[in-house]
Amino acid sequence: MNKIFIVAKNKVGVLATITELLAEKNINIDEIDVDELQSLKGMEACVISVDKYDLALETLRNATMKEGLFKAVPQENLVLLLTDKPGALAHITKKFKDADINIHGMHILERDGNHSLVGVSVDHILEAKQVIADCLIFPK
What we know:
Elements: E1 3-9, H1 14-24, E2 29-36, E3 43-50, H2 53-67, E4 70-74, E5 78-83, H3 88-98, E6 103-111, E7 115-122, H4 125-131, E8 136-138
Antiparallel strand pairs: 1-3, 1-4, 2-3, 5-7, 5-8, 6-7
């Protein structure tokens, strides 16, 4: 089952916006899990499984541009929680290099001054999850 990871501002109506956007496209939510991110104050993580994965991801990504309340990344991405300090990304990229894992893409999803949520697309995802297990928050 394909899952979408969403990082959202923890404020009234954000979850309603997400679910309404999906309902407007006749996308059924099969599973949903929402938790506050303790390390990023004012942010929450939402993982959803839907029946129309590609349409849902496109819908949420388009809404991200307009709404600015959340960001959605596909299941193929690893989501890491890093300390927001110089060298944190270098440390992670070196771990991948040392394990001979190629990085296809990297996106900073959210920052609060103390921590950063980073989405990473890599080769050998199972091996990559082991290499960065100490900071991996999605998928587990």
